[in-house]
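Supplementary notes (optional reading)

For those who missed the lab, this is the record we used. Protein: Zinc transporter. Length: 337 residues.
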Amino acid sequence: MRQPINTLYGSDETGLICGYVFSPEGIHPLSSNAASLWLQNTDNQTNSFIWLHFNLSHSACEKWLHQYLNLSPIFYEALHEGTRSSRIEYVDDSLIAVINDVVFDFSVDATDVATLYLSVSQHVVVSARVKPLVSIDRLRAAVKQGEQLSSTVDLLVHLLRDQADVMTQIARDVARHVDHIEDTLLSNRLDIHRANLGNLRRLLLRLQRLLAPEPSALFRLLSRPPRWMIEDDTVNLRQSTEEFSTVLRDMSALQERIKLLQEEIAAHINEQNNRSLFVLSTVTVLALPINLTASLLGMNVGGIPLANNHAGFWLIILLVATLTCIAVWFAFGHKND
């Protein structure tokens, strides 16, 4: 049974949130001082590797990285690019990954997405973020509980699978919302707003665009992996890519389902509007004879017919009733025929 590993929570004076060394003897937590000593002693890197996770909001973070680590300039460029689509590329004998993930207080809002930056080499994994993210914290919890990882790429694969699990959970939450709206529509209780579906659809589109790794970059990586990447890591990375593809297909299907619901709701609303317009038009036509007659007889001019006839009122009523019946026949008689 794996034993939990005690470590400090939060970042230290260098911005290090957590650090671990993975060796055949097990997993051990590292402070920033211990990590700097490990990096300076190349003998430690024979059968082991370390993972260092940093908080980019700490001012001393980048300074420590420049001082003790020889990371690719592409990694530092990515730190200042802002949020972009997720990607993994092989540069300067290391894997540079930009992974977008959801924050802890994610509430089905497309704005609750932040970026995680990684540099993965044969013996060192560096991850950095500004906001707390769900997937990386799942990985940290697994390592804290003693889950052994065989290599740096194995750690990256674990992270990608955690992210796929997060995306799957989001898709399930959105599907529950859509199920509720669909049930409401089928029960003819159209008390929903089309904006709800629009927000869900925009959320899925944004998550697909941000969270999904670039297929071309992954294809290049898998076809020409780094020389230090073993075959098992390549297979695991390919499997995690396939899991991502499955989640993306589910999201695409969910988007299509939302689109069909939007069209159905729009058609239902148009039908109600057409029915209301028909009733309004019918009432207007039926009221036309009496309005026209009242307007003519209400003019203060001489020569108004039947003005001196004691039966004039009833004759006008008969005329209006006759004209109304003719209007009713024109409105409904042709429709019945």
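If you only remember one thing from this example: Strands lie at 16-23, 26-29, 49-55, 87-91, 94-102, 113-120, 124-129.
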